[in-house]
Design a protein that fits this description.
Elements (H helix, E strand, L loop, with lengths): L1 H12 L6 H8 L3 E2 L4 E2 L8 E4 L4 E8 L7 H13 L6 E8 L2 H18 L10 E6 L7 H13 L4 E6 L7 H5 L6 E3 L8 E3 L1 E5 L15 E6 L15 H13 L8 E5 L6 H9 L4 E6 L6 H14 L2 E10 L1 E2 L5 E2 L6 H9 L3 E6 L2 H9 L3 H4 L3 H17 L9 H17 L1
Parallel strand pairs: 4-5, 6-12, 6-13, 7-11, 7-12, 13-14, 14-17
Antiparallel strand pairs: 1-2, 3-4, 8-9, 10-11, 15-16
Bound molecules: adenosine-5'-triphosphate (ATP) and magnesium ion (MG).
The site of magnesium ion (MG) has 5 residues, from helix 5.
Length: 418
C-alpha cells in the first residue's frame, strides 16, 4: 500500500520540463551587445524544442558565420536556460542568416538604436553622411571636403565634422585656421562652440538663376581648430569618442541640411560612438580600385555590421588617370569599387580619377569640386548631385516645396525681366 504513495511523492518533487514559451522568455535576457537588443526580438532564435525529460535545443542564427560574439552568446544562452529547474541539458544548433534575414535584423537594430539615442545638437532634419574606409590613406578626407563643398554649392548648409581627432586634415583642406570660439546662446546655460563658417558661391546652371538663390554655407568643426598642426594628440579611445560626442553635443550647429563626417582610419571606437550617438548616420565607403581590396571590403562590411549603420554607397578614389593625349593609366588597379559595391550590395556612386588637381586643391585649401574643370572635379559634382537627388535627399525638400519655391521665384524673375 505504501508503494503508490511513494511514487506520488517523487512525482511531486521532479519539476517538469519548461514549455517552449518559457524558454523563449528566458532567452529574452540574452542581449547581442553589438546590436543592442535581445536575441529573440532580433529574430535570431528560429526554433526551440524541449523534450519531456528537460533536454532543450535552441536554434540560433548568427548574422555571420564567424561572428566573434558566438562564444559569449553560447555562454549566455546556456546559463540563462539552465536556471530553469526542469532543464537537464542545453544544446545550441548554430545557423547563419540569409542576406534578407540579416538586413531585417539590421533594420530592427537601427530602429532600437534610434529609439534610445541621446539628444544631440544636430537637427533631426539633417542628413548625416560619414565617409569611411577599410584602410587609411584612400582619400576619405579629400572626398569629404569635396563632396561637402559641392553639395553646399547647390545652396545647402553643410556641416563638416572632422572626426579624425588625431590626424585631422580638414582645416588644411578647406584653408581655415581660425580657432573655434565658444559663445553663450539663448536657451543654454553653458557656452556653446560656434563652428567656423565658410560661404560657398552657388554653382551655375543648377536650379534656376544663380543671383536669385541663396549661397551655400559650410560649418566646420575640427580639433585642428583647437591645437596647432603638428601637435601630437595623445588621446586614448575613450577620449576620442568623448571628443566626437562633444562636437555633436556642444557645437551650436544651428540650421543644417547635411552633416558630412570625416572618419578616422580604422574601424574602432569612433564609429561605435557615432552609431550610439547618431544612429541615423549613413556610411559612404571609399576604396581604391585595387582588386586586392577584397580584404578591405570584408573589413568595411564587417564594420558596418558591427555598428549597424547603413552603408548607402561606395566611392572609388584614385581611379585610372587619363593623360592629355587621352591615354588611360590604371595606376592603382581596376574594378575595386565595383567589386566592393557588389559585395556590400549598394550602388557605386562614382569613380574619381587620380589627378594632380585633387592634391593641389587640398594644398591650396580650395576643394577642386568648387572650381575645377577636370574629370575629378566633374565626378565629385556628379556624386554630389546623386547624393542630393537619390542617395540622401534633403529632408526639408521632401515635399519638394523649397525646390518649387525656387522655381516659382525663377519664373517670376524671368517674367519681370521680359
Ligand atoms: N583622386 C586623387 N588624386 C590625387 N591625389 C589624391 C586623390 N585623392 C586623394 N589624394 C591625395 O592622397 C593623399 C591621401 O588623401 P586623404 O588625406 O584624403 O586620405 P585619407 O583617407 O583621409 O587618409 P587618412 O586615412 O590618413 O585620414 C593626400 O595627399 C591627397 O591629396
Ligand atoms: Mg583623413
Amino acid at each position: 500500500m505504501s508503494v503508490p504513495g511513494n511514487y506520488r511523492s517523487i512525482d511531486f518533487m521532479i519539476t517538469p520540463a519548461p514549455t517552449v514559451e518559457a524558454v523563449f522568455e528566458l532567452l529574452r535576457a540574452v542581449i547581442d551587445p553589438e546590436l543592442g537588443a535581445d536575441i529573440v526580438s532580433l529574430g535570431m532564435v528560429p526554433e526551440v524544442t524541449v523534450s519531456p525529460a528537460g533536454d532543450v535545443q535552441v536554434g540560433i542564427k548568427l548574422t555571420i558565420g564567424g561572428c566573434p560574439l558566438r562564444a559569449q552568446i553560447k555562454k549566455d544562452v546556456e546559463s540563462r536556460v539552465a536556471v530553469h529547474p526542469g532543464v537537464r541539458t542545453v544544446r545550441i544548433e548554430w545557423g547563419e542568416m540569409t542576406s534578407d534575414e540579416r538586413s531585417q535584423v539590421m533594420t530592427k537594430a537601427r530602429w532600437n538604436a534610434r529609439e534610445h539615442a541621446p539628444a544631440t545638437a544636430v537637427p533631426t532634419t539633417t542628413r548625416v553622411l560619414a565617409i569611411a574606409s577599410g584602410k587609411g590613406g584612400v582619400g576619405k578626407s579629400s572626398v569629404t571636403v569635396n563632396l561637402a563643398a559641392a553639395v553646399a554649392a547647390q545652396g545647402f548648409t553643410v556641416g563638416v565634422l572632422d572626426a579624425d581627432i588625431w590626424g585631422f586634415s580638414v582645416p588644411r583642406l578647406l584653408g581655415i585656421d581660425e580657432p573655434l570660439e565658444a559663445q553663450r546662446v539663448q536657451g543654454s546655460d553653458k557656452p556653446r562652440i560656434i563652428p567656423n563658417e565658410l560661404p560657398v558661391a552657388r554653382a551655375l546652371g543648377t536650379h534656376g538663376k544663380p543671383g536669385l538663390l541663396k549661397p551655400g554655407l559650410l560649418k566646420v568643426v575640427s580639433t585642428g581648430f583647437l591645437v596647432e598642426e603638428g601637435t601630437a594628440l595623445m588621446w586614448r579611445g575613450l577620449m576620442l569618442t568623448k571628443a566626437v560626442e562633444q562636437f555633436l553635443h556642444d557645437v551650436e550647429w544651428g540650421e543644417l541640411d547635411y552633416l558630412f563626417i570625416d572618419m578616422p582610419p580604422g574601424t574602432g571606437d569612433v564609429q561605435m560612438g557615432l552609431a550610439r550617438m547618431l544612429p541615423r548616420t549613413d556610411l559612404l565607403i571609399v576604396t581604391t580600385p585595387a582588386l586586392a581590396a577584397q580584404k578591405v571590403a570584408a573589413r568595411a562590411a564587417d564594420m558596418a555590421r558591427r555598428s549597424f549603420l547603413r552603408v548607402c554607397g561606395v566611392i572609388e578614389n584614385m581611379s585610372a588617370f587619363t593623360c592629355d593625349h587621352g591615354e588611360s593609366y590604371a595606376l592603382f588597379g581596376d574594378g575595386g569599387g565595383q567589386a566592393l559595391a557588389e559585395q556590400v550590395g549598394v550602388p557605386l556612386l562614382g569613380r574619381i580619377p587620380l589627378e594632380a588637381a585633387v592634391a593641389a586643391g587640398g594644398d591650396d585649401g580650395l576643394p577642386v569640386s568648387l572650381t575645377g574643370e577636370g574629370a575629378a572635379a566633374t565626378e565629385f559634382r556628379k556624386i554630389a548631385r546623386q547624393i542630393i537627388e537619390e542617395v540622401a535627399p534633403p529632408t526639408n525638400m521632401a515635399g519638394c516645396s523649397a525646390r518649387m519655391l525656387n522655381l516659382v521665384a525663377a519664373a517670376l524673375d524671368a517674367h519681370d525681366g521680359a
